[in-house]
Amino acid sequence: MKYEGMIYRPPSEANSLILQVAVGCSYNKCTFCHSFQGKSFRIKSFEEIKEDIDEAGGYGRIPRVFLADGDALIIPQEDLVKILSYLKLKIRGLERVGIYANAVDVLKKSVEELRELKELGLGIIYLGLESGNPEVLKRIKKNATAEQMVRAAKRVKEAGIILSVTVLLGIGGVELSRAHAEDTGKVLSEMDPEYVGALSLMIVPGTPIAQAIESGKLVLPNPFELIRELGLMIANCRFTKCFFASNHASNYLPLRIRMPEEKERALGLIREVLQKNDPSLLRPEYMRAL
Asked: Count of domains in the chain?
């Protein structure tokens, strides 16, 4: 397999074959993101992709494939159809293909186009909401509004594709912590995804958000304030059926919650941790990672 630069994938795709169909991110302006710095965005040619698929075809049974890099759904429909069709032809035992997307790219596809991709194996779309608060989204230079995020989510779900949404604890700083948590919970409820992953903001030197912290424009919540944020977010979530996880390595309090049935249990645990205010109950700093 031929990869260009560092390759990123969702934690749930750890056992998937990573097929790089595009390099970098077409937007690449979010203030917190370092993943695609130094990469010039391009879509790989079908011949390049075909060579990798042919190689993977000799690996044996591969149940899952993830299409990298940052927003591969931007690839024109005709080309995505060719890629998925060839995967289906060459990869034995293929059950599901996953892909990163942003709301703008989703909204460029019709429901019928998304359904076409689903029929060819696209089973899950990963969408970064980060925050449901308009001011936070503006500050981090996200390329979509909360309203666009909701419309994109509904389109994915209407097409019958599983939706996994990522949010970032701490991204609003201390100033907007409560508003960020409450609004994010409300927007997540409108999106009603099958999966939510809550990560804690990790600062990478050289990013615009790191510079905001250095200048004092942004003050990060402390570990217990991040957990309070998590509780407020969960309290404001109203899901039909969702698996909500905060077990990413960046988080101080790992949780895995089936909602709505386990919501109150999770909120009770968060209240208990906040009342005890005991750092030994949290993931140690040395164990946290991106």
From this structure: 1
